[in-house]
């Protein structure tokens, strides 16, 4: 029984690696990609160049027919909006949620600006005397 399960796990790992390679070919045009799964956990988070993806992102790309441009727009959005956590599927399928996430991030940036202005004003008053 355990040998059968080990064989099934090995098949799953091999298929996961195949899908990862296919993804990197389809989305990055790389025929011989170098990547690694974090902590060698196949099916988890992997690094490819400067990119970090979860295997579930690969599945979402294929299930929803996400284009390379959409994938990179989502990735860019996530890098630019650290305080906003939105999945690839929600980013693509829910423009309203994306708009709310952008508004939340903008509100946080406005608060930072207000805080910086206040700190600058206090510093100028303190050192201006």
- Ranges where pLDDT stays below 50 over 5 or more residues in a row are none
Task: Give helix and strand order, one letter per element, not per position.
Answer: HEEEHHHH
- The total strand number stands at 3
Total of helices: 5
Strand content bin = 5-15%
3D shape: elongated
Helix content: 55-70%
Oligomeric assembly: single chain
The largest sheet has its strands arranged as 1-2-3
The mean pLDDT is 87
- Computed structural class: mainly alpha
Distance between the termini: 81 Å
Compute the CA-based radius of gyration: 21 Å
How many structural domains? 1
Largest sheet: 3 strands, antiparallel
Characterise the protein shown here:
The structure is a single chain. This protein has 129 residues and is mostly helical. It has one domain. The protein has helices at residues 2-28, 55-64, 68-80, 88-93, 95-128, and strands spanning 36-37, 45-48, 51-54. Strands 1-2-3 form a 3-stranded antiparallel β-sheet. It is elongated, with a radius of gyration of 21 Å.
What topology does this entry show?
Layout: H1 2-28, E1 36-37, E2 45-48, E3 51-54, H2 55-64, H3 68-80, H4 88-93, H5 95-128
Antiparallel strand pairs: 1-2, 2-3
In short:
The protein is mainly alpha-helical. Helices cover 70% and strands 8% of the residues.
Comma- or semicolon-separated keywords:
3 strands; mainly alpha; 8% strand; three-stranded antiparallel β-sheet; 129 residues
């Amino acid at each position: 029984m355990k040998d059968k399960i080990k064989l099934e796990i090995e098949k799953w790992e091999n298929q996961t690696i195949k899908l990862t390679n296919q993804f990197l070919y389809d989305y990055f045009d790389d025929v011989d990609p170098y990547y690694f799964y974090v902590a060698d956990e196949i099916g988890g988070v992997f690094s490819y160049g400067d990119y970090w993806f979860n295997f579930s992102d690969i599945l979402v790309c294929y299930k929803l027919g996400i284009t390379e441009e959409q994938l990179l727009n989502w990735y860019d959005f996530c890098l630019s909006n650290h305080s906003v956590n939105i999945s690839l599927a929600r980013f693509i399928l829910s423009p309203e949620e994306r708009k709310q996430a952008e508004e939340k991030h903008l509100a946080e940036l406005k608060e930072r600006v207000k805080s910086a202005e206040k700190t600058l004003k206090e510093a100028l008053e303190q050192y201006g005397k």
